[in-house]
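#struct-help
A.M.: can someone run this one for me? Single chain, 195 residues.
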Amino acid sequence: MIDSSQTNLPIIARRLVRLAAFRALQDANLQIPIYSPGDWSTSSLRVPEIKVRAPGERKDSTVKSMATFTTLVMLEIQLRVSADTEELLQNKLDELSYRIEEIIFKSYWLIKVVQQIASCDVEEEISSDGKTHIGAVKFTIACELYEAFDPLEDEPPLTEWPPKDFIPAPLEEMTITIAEPPGTPLVGLDFKFQN
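D.P.: on it. Structure tokens below:
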């Protein structure tokens, strides 16, 4: 579980992506304990569980002068469940894997901070421990972000992230006006969204 001491640290790309994914999974109320960070290997007694971590990243420079990067963060999500039969286990893994993909790929929290989800690799493992069958699915999701480090800018103050009381407001209406040269009639679009 994430405690308040983790939200008072400076935000680096790995941490930002990990916390966004953790928040998305928490908000989905899957009725499964979610840990981040967590010991990756656990005993068979501690299932079901979901673990979220971001163990690595790669920064590729975008320009020669200032330190600006396209950063690729490797987000890992591991789901572990158990069942009495292989068939029940496979069904649980498939159902929960589908739900995790839906949650992560549609997450407001994650999409807000990344430029793109560059790739997703999925590995599945099933084993038997006596009468209990244990299965794990590991998602490795490559999340691309832009980072810039300006040597003249002051270090930002420590702030809490994600905000505890933020709820995205539903979009009800949008007006788009296309800028045209003077003397040209204005062209625009109005959208009204219905629930």
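A.M.: thanks! Residues 86-105 form the longest helix (20 residues).
D.P.: also worth noting: The helical segments are 13-27, 86-105, 108-111.
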